[in-house]
């Protein structure tokens, strides 16, 4: 039985890794196509039909370009930076519930690598480590622009992690758990008939969702919060001195972070693998079909948020750095604290 368990988990780990890398790979293609659409251009259209093989061409280019290392006394740290950033981006996928339980070969298989009861703490812990990859790379590059980008990234992530954590507290007060699977299960279906709520947390905590979404843009260094790699001021920011696949790791990890953050938003606020009519599907088509449709529903929500990230990038201008800090400390944190107080009062009055 133990060998079957390890085989299941091994297959699931490989599947999640492959899907994450594939989605991150083609997110680069989607971003270029969406940017072209907004700017009335064609976009990449040479490699393969409609440019569909462009991400593979970009990958080959990254692998075959010269790997340049600057004259720095910290060559080990220079190599460690992108590897650490990429690793932390991938590890967060381990606690995300990608679907409900399916029955296969007489076994009940959960479509989740690790169902731990402190999954949210795990996610925040890994995300906070990810900034070290940026800081180490920027500092070890021995370049003033890289160092300035690394300082910006660290201060930005620290500032917005506080608001993000506070926004989640209101959700935890209503759900009573740190397990992402339990949070998903509590949003079963679409309508919670017992409490007369729409069951998804976005309807119960709209302000927490808005704060979390804004902080997710800052945490992933996406426009309008891409100050750490601001091309107009810092050349390329913390990865200015990087080339070849080390640069590819930094760029690729950004898209992985965007995919994972979209998954976490979907799980926390939009029901995760739940969708309207789940019970009807379960009764008519069976548990496995219900679970597989749940996986499709979750990825549909994830793709919507990935598109939203790209839509915002090509719509809004970049903030100034003082505006970035003011928004985090003077607007989002007080709003998140006020939301906690109001949520606590509503819970007490409701009881």
State the gist of this model:
The protein has 13 helices and four strands. The chain has 351 residues and is mainly alpha-helical. The protein has one domain.
How would you portray this structure in words?
With 351 residues, the protein is mainly alpha-helical. The chain has one domain (2-350). The protein is 68% helix and 3% strand. The chain has a two-stranded antiparallel sheet with strand order 1-2. The chain has a two-stranded antiparallel ribbon with strand order 3-4. A hairpin with a 2-residue loop joins β1 (101-104) and β2. The protein starts with a helix and ends with a helix.
Radius of gyration, whole Å: 21 Å
Our measurement of the CA-to-CA distance between the termini, rounded to an integer number of angstroms, reads 45 Å
Number of helices: 13
Pattern of helices and strands:
HHHEEHHHEEHHHHHHH
What is the domain tally? Answer: 1
Count the beta strands: 4
Strand content: under 5%
Give the uncertain stretches in residue-range form.
none
**How is the main sheet built?**
2 strands, antiparallel
Structural class: mainly alpha
Q: Assembly type of the shown chains?
A: single chain
Tell the overall outline: globular
């Amino acid at each position: 039985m133990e060998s079957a368990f390890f085989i299941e988990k091994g297959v699931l780990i490989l599947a999640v890794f492959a899907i994450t890398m594939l989605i991150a790979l083609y997110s680069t293609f989607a971003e270029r196509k969406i940017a072209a659409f907004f700017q009335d251009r064609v976009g990449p259209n040479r490699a393969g039909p409609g440019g569909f093989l462009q991400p593979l061409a970009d990958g080959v280019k990254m692998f075959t370009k010269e790997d340049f290392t600057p004259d720095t006394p910290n060559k080990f740290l220079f190599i460690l930076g992108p590897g650490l950033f990429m690793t932390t981006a991938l590890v967060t996928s381990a606690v995300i519930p990608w679907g409900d339980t399916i029955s296969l070969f007489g076994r009940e298989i959960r479509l989740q690598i690790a169902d731990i009861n402190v999954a949210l703490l795990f996610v925040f812990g890994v995300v906070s480590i990810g900034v070290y990859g940026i800081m180490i790379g920027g500092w070890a590059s021995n370049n003033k622009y890289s160092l300035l980008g690394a300082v910006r990234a660290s201060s930005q992530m620290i500032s917005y992690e506080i608001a993000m954590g506070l926004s989640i507290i209101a959700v935890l007060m209503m759900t009573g758990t740190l397990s992402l699977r339990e949070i998903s299960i509590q949003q079963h279906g679409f309508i919670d008939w017992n409490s007369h709520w729409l069951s998804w947390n976005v309807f119960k905590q709209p302000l927490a969702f808005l704060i979390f979404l804004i902080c997710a843009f800052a945490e992933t260094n996406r426009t309008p919060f891409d100050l750490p790699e601001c091309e107009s001021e810092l050349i390329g920011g913390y990865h200015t001195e990087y080339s070849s696949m080390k640069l590819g790791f930094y760029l690729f990890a950004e898209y992985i972070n965007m995919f994972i953050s979209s998954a976490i938003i979907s799980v926390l606020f939009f029901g995760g693998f739940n969708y309207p009519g789940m019970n009807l599907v379960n009764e008519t088509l069976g548990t496995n079909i219900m679970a597989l449709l749940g996986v499709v529903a979750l990825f549909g929500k994830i793709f919507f948020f990935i598109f939203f990230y790209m839509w915002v990038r090509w719509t809004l201008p970049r903030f100034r750095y003082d505006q970035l800090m003011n928004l985090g400390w003077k607007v989002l944190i007080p709003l998140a604290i006020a939301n906690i107080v109001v949520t606590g009062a509503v819970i007490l009055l409701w009881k």
